[in-house]
Write a structure and sequence with these properties.
The protein is an all-alpha fold and 67 residues long. The chain is built from three helices and no strands. The relative contact order is 0.17.
């Protein structure tokens, strides 16, 4: 079960990065705004870590001792 806190922290860090880039895009102008808005990659890691966390959580929950 030690990987759950690590996966959760990675997910939260990626959420912060995604929020940072979204805010930066709203405040940017011109070419910078275009670049920041066209960068969908920041949501990918967030979704990946959420999926990995949820999958590990489900696996631990199925263990006889509750993980």
């Amino acid at each position: 079960m030690p990987d759950l806190p690590v996966l959760r922290m990675a997910f939260l860090i990626e959420c912060d990065f995604a929020e940072f880039y979204a805010t930066a895009a709203q405040q940017a102008e011109g070419e910078e705004k275009t670049v920041l808005e066209s960068c969908p990659l920041e949501r990918g890691p967030e979704k990946l870590f959420k999926h990995l966390h949820d999958k590990a959580f489900e696996e631990y929950a199925q263990m006889p001792w509750g993980g």
